[in-house]
Design a protein that fits this description.
The chain is an alpha/beta fold. It has two domains: 9-252, Rossmann fold, CATH 3.40.50; 255-286. Helices cover 52% and strands 12% of the residues. It has helices at residues 18-27, 41-54, 70-85, 112-140, 161-180, 206-209, 219-231, 241-252, 255-285; strands at 9-13, 33-38, 59-64, 94-97, 143-148, 186-191, 236-237. α3 (70-85) packs parallel to α4 (112-140). The structure holds NADP nicotinamide-adenine-dinucleotide phosphate. NADP nicotinamide-adenine-dinucleotide phosphate binds at residues 14-20, 38-40, 43, 65-68, 98-101, 121, 148, 150, 193, 195-196, 198-200.
Amino acid sequence: MKPVLKDSTILITGASSGMGNEIAKRLAVDARQIILVARNTKKLDELASELNIINPALQVHTKPCDLADKNKLAALIIAIKQEQSKQQLGNIDILINGAGIAQIGFLNETDFHDIENIIKINVLALSALTHAFLPTMIKNNRGGILNFSSFFGLKILPAYAAYAGSKHFVTGFSDTLRAETAGSNVVISTVFPGPVHSPFWNVDNADIYSPPGFLFISLKQCVTQTLKGFKRGKARIIPGLRIKLLVAFLNVSPEPIVRLVNAGISRFMQSKRKKTLQTKISNITI
Ligand SMILES: NC(=O)c1ccc[n+]([C@@H]2O[C@H](COP(=O)([O-])OP(=O)(O)OC[C@H]3O[C@@H](n4cnc5c(N)ncnc54)[C@H](OP(=O)(O)O)[C@@H]3O)[C@@H](O)[C@H]2O)c1
């Protein structure tokens, strides 16, 4: 089954930057209404203007919201439903759960607040929005949801415990909903990007623990492959050949070996962190 994008009402979270922003531009041509969600009002307004240049007939609604705040998240859902009942907004045909944050670092160097935030945005907001809008899609037998998981929703790496945990939730949640909606015209797709050049990596410790450069792909490549898979109604989309091969390789690798390799990576990362901190301290002293 393929999601119907023509004349659809599309809700995109994480629209102020990175992949959500690019997806909005690509889908603007077909959509009738687009609802843009993120915290940065200015960036949402700029995007809205750009979308209206791409498609002057498109109705763009910006809904600034801190998805980590459960009251604001609830208010967003209520506001959309109220506008729908007044016919100011159509039913959500397509939901793109793009908003997501990273937290990088070993647990003993991580604030619990950061772990909480990851769960609020990557897990709770994604499930709340899905829970709010999927039932109408099922009732109308029309719609599609694209959830952003990650390589870390399939595999793990030291220094990404909370992030990997949150993305494994997205994977299990989405795969299960895919099974629950099987046989209907509602498409649930999940995308599993490896590292992608985007502001996502502008977080503490990325310089120490980010994956090797050769695994990174461009944002445009990631979005092109993601939308290609979503438009075809694929269950799982893994953009980028190298990440696809890595996942395939890890899938057939014996678990004890993978654990040994991860233990080695962990030791390597810890010694890299020690050296980086020592360099920083000696630079301050000088
Ligand atoms: N880039 C990668 O390497 C990579 C790899 C695998 C998976 N992913 C996943 O892909 C998705 C998109 O990532 P990206 O690379 O496009 O990242 P990005 O450029 O950092 O964009 C993240 C988006 O999430 C929004 N967001 C963050 N915190 C929010 C909050 N509290 N409330 C509302 N919106 C919030 C941001 O908007 P505001 O700051 O304006 O709120 C922004 O629009 C994420 O789910 C990420 O986990 C990314």
